[in-house]
Amino acid sequence: MGAVKRLVIGVLVMLIVSSSVVFAAGSDPWPTKPIELYIGWPPGGNVDLVVRAYLSTFSKELGVPVVVNYKPGAGGVVCAEYIARAKPDGYTIQEVSYSIISMQLLTVNTPITYNDFTFIMGHTGQNFAVVVRQDAPWKTFKEWVEYARKKPATYGVPGVYTSQSVVMDWIIKREGLKEVSVVPYQGGNELIAPVMGGHIDLALVAGNHVPLCEGGKLRTLLQFSGEVPDPDPAKVPFLTQAYPDCPDSLRAMVEIPVGLTGPKGMPAPIVQKLAQSLRKAVNEEGYKNFLKQSKRPLVTNWEGADAMKRAKMATDAYAAYLKQVGFVKK
Amino acid sequence: MKKLDKSAIFLLALGVFIILEARTMGVGSFSRPGAGLFPLLSGVVLLTMALIILVASAAKKVNPSAGKGEGRNVWSVFYVLGALLFFRLTLPVLGYSCTAFIVLIFLIKIVGGHKWFPTVVWSVVFTGFSYLLFAQWLMVQFPKGVLPF
Amino acid sequence: MISGFSIALAPVNLLFCFIGCVLGTLVGVLPGMGSATTIALLMPITFRLSPVTAIIMLAGIFYGAQYGGSTTSILVNIPGEATSVVTCIDGYQMARQGRAGPALGISAFASFIAGTLGVMALAFFGPPLAELAIKFGPPEFASLVFLSLMLVGYLGGKSLPKALAMAAIGLTIGTVGQDPVNIQPRFVYGILEFNSGMNIVPILMGLFGIAEILSNVERIIKPEVLDAKIKTFLPSLQDWRDSIGAILRGAGIGFFIGLIPGSGAIVPTFISYGIEKKLSKHPEQFGRGAIEGVAGPESANNAAAQGTLVPLLTFGIPPNVTGALLLAALMIHGVRVGPLLITQHPDVFWGCVASMYLGNVMLLILNLPLIPLWVRVLKVPYYLLFPLITLLCLVGSYSINNSLLDLVVLIVFGVAGYLMQKYEYPPAPLVLGLILSPILEKSFRQALIISRGDFSIFFTRPISAAFLIVAIGLLLSHFFPLFIRRFRANVAD
Hints:
The complex is a heterotrimer.
Chain A: H1 3-26, E1 35-39, H2 46-62, E2 66-70, H3 77-84, E3 92-97, H4 98-107, E4 117-124, E5 128-133, H5 141-150, E6 154-157, H6 163-174, E7 181-184, H7 189-196, E8 202-205, H8 210-214, E9 218-225, H9 239-242, H10 248-254, E10 258-263, H11 268-282, H12 285-294, H13 304-325
Parallel strand pairs in A: 1-2, 1-3, 6-7, 6-8
Antiparallel strand pairs in A: 3-10, 4-10, 5-8, 5-9
Chain B: H1 2-24, H2 37-59, H3 74-94, H4 96-111, H5 116-137
Chain C: H1 2-8, H2 11-29, H3 35-42, H4 51-76, H5 85-96, H6 100-133, H7 138-150, H8 152-155, H9 160-174, E1 177-178, E2 185-186, H10 200-219, H11 237-259, H12 266-279, H13 292-315, H14 321-332, H15 341-344, H16 346-377, H17 382-401, H18 404-422, H19 428-450, H20 457-460, H21 462-492
Antiparallel strand pairs in C: 1-2
């Protein structure tokens, strides 16, 4: 053959080969580009710590970089709205407390509900507890209840209508206490100083009390979820032990984990891949150490359909509670 | 005298607005404050101060020198504001670099009034430097626009 | 303590302290970009370092930002951080008089002195003081903030009604968002981002930065240059004599208020300014370039930054987002921050403390030679400077929450600030009201819930009563001279 012909055939062959490589790359297993993981609170918070603890293994399992973006606002709802409206291709996901998905959305003026999300996998529970200062006169929760029958008592909550405060409200009503005042704060960090200083009797805390219990400045009276951090855990009852008749729906509310979500309509294989990688990441040594240190439980059976079911249960219970207290979404 | 009146009147209206809005929120009482109590109190203070300023200005005979129209270059103010609005509207469409570049050119040339060559040079420099600083180093997430940067 | 210094002086730690300080200064100079973002970005890198080294670097960023924030306040009237707002008032005026050098210098020295005193107080008295600070409850907070509000008159220039009007507006803006007690939306008008309140950074940048630019472009006939004579680079002996009292008082105020969990480093700067103006023999100079108005607040904000670290290190209570990040960084490195920190990880605690001192020294050494450089920035022709500043304000506002809405807020407050300058309304009281509003309202309502609606709680608790007495005293001292004059006028008739 002539030189020109050979050149032309050579070029054609190259073109065919390279384009097939391009097509093959196109049908590479998902993911093929970095994933954006959103967090709806400022850096350094509860959810951020969880993500940082599993991020490197998660990223390694997926084979692509996972980039963390922060999108705070309206208690996590700004981020949730953004995710709900994103493309369900698996490249935009969010690590969120599943309670946002079921509850916060009911209180803020937004059209989004939990039906607008794909629940990928919930994995880590919270450490919710009722604590008092070290030198408080009540050694057990029941002692405080008896005190509250006679004297004006107070307890602090990290926010009105949060899951713990709903449960505590149920306990108060069940015990028939009428004169107890609820003092609202914004976030768990604001509760620590007031309860240590005795300005409020009890505080409903969400994890940042752990070092203080270990250090002997606070005592746990009742544990809603997670492990008791006190030096003598056997003395502290769980919610289910102290109040066996607490309805399941309320218990579901405080047992809601944090986990990954994405917009609704994510294809099943992508969800599988994400859940698989995440499962590996949270079962790995480093993450287990993180859980041990923060005394939080690893949660299983919050995937896919199960998660939707439980979220629905918690949402319905919460909606009923809001109706009962006369809350109207403005 | 007219100048002071204008600002006090605006504040008066603002105070009334705040008070009216506060009342729709439910004021509660002093010992059991509702959502509207604080805004109501602030609105009342604002209203009172606006009245004091208004009365004081009416009593004054001297014409204050402050005034919007007396600036030498009011148009520049509008140009800058226009540029700011442009940035807000165009950022999601064109992305950071284009928008910043256009805004810089506009401000340096039209408002600052210099020749084309230094304008373009400096705009390129500032856009490049700020892009590297913000988008690359500090990883600010700008909306994706026309160009990849 | 000695072992702490030996740890801090290890070459590796010194290096990272330096890196942290440089980064922090840069971040502080950039308007809007917070130390929080930088620390968040760098945290993964710190995994390869030991906990002590990591925290030393991150803490360097924390302080560096404090030093850097005042630079832009003085040079271009844009507070790099909310704690530098008060520095704008007199600092910028000093710059316009060609005294940017002394302003920057006294600011650096004040920060250094306050930082050193603060570190010593932290090291020797920190933990017991922290226990005392816990005694502050809602009634005390409410009274303290009420007292701070009384100082608004001192921020305002000539007209008290105008200052109070601005404070009232600031208080109202502070209520935007969900009500803290029954989460009812206030002034939200369906804008989702407003549910968590309005972001203060675009408001500050608009009121101070953009407003200044708008005023300047109106005055200058293109392409005239904003005339900036430069007189000297460093504070003179007279400057020192004027400032030393302010510095020491500011350090005290800053540290003790910063110590109280929940108060932050902003309130002490306003209090310091108010006190310096009250104590000054020439109060009319404030607002026109009085160096005490820079020295006191700068000292206060640094001392307060140290103070806020006390509840962080002793109880694990972070003062703000940046503090929460430091906590997170420690946690990730396996260090449990809390009452056991000193006993379980004394190397971290004392290494931290010693590095804070070294950080202060480094920042002083870093910042002083930079002063001539910064001052030269003013020599840049305004037609180039203001577009760059405008761009930085835009990006800074956007970058906090990646929010286009914040750009609109920037513009609106830019216009507002411009009009306020025209009609002679002071912006600082608005900022004070904005910052204090949430704390005041929350504490007030919390106190009333605890006392079941009984107002006497504010007067029967000693600390709260003390603050209220001082507040009422301040209020009277404003009106008393007026009464005396009226009385004398009446008697004379």
